[in-house]
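Last lecture ended with a question: if I hand you only a sequence, what can you say about the shape of the protein? Today we answer it with a concrete record. The protein is ADP-heptose synthase / D-glycero-beta-D-manno-heptose 7-phosphate kinase. Below, first the input exactly as provided, then the predicted structure, then a couple of comments.
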Amino acid sequence: AKMLGDVLVVGINSDRSARRLKGKHRPINTEQDRMALVAALEPVDYVVLFDEDTPVEAIRALRPDVHVKGGDYAGQELPEAEAVREGGGRVEIVPLIGRQSTSDVIDRILHLAALPQRNGMVEVPTAMGVER
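The predicted structure:
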């Protein structure tokens, strides 16, 4: 995403927004922790928090030249696309690097928790993507 512009601003859903979108047991990590993690990434210049279900209002305020979304949004009309175009920007969909969503991590943890234990230990199947 950084290669598509001069300044990289990353929008993060607030805890309330994530809860509305993902369910009452989400998010797993607090908005402060998520913001700190993203801010620590070298290419990131700024992190903004938004409380809406979509980043439309943040985009209207920021008026980006380029709005970047991950490849998991390919083929979808984004709710914020019109706001990007209204501000003179364009939407770019970039390929995902790996596929490690929070939902995937939660599913793996729940799967592992359901496995039988021997002496407090769980044998992790190689199908879970763990190398021995």
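Comments.
1. Residues 100-132 form one domain.
2. The first helix runs from residue 15 to 22.
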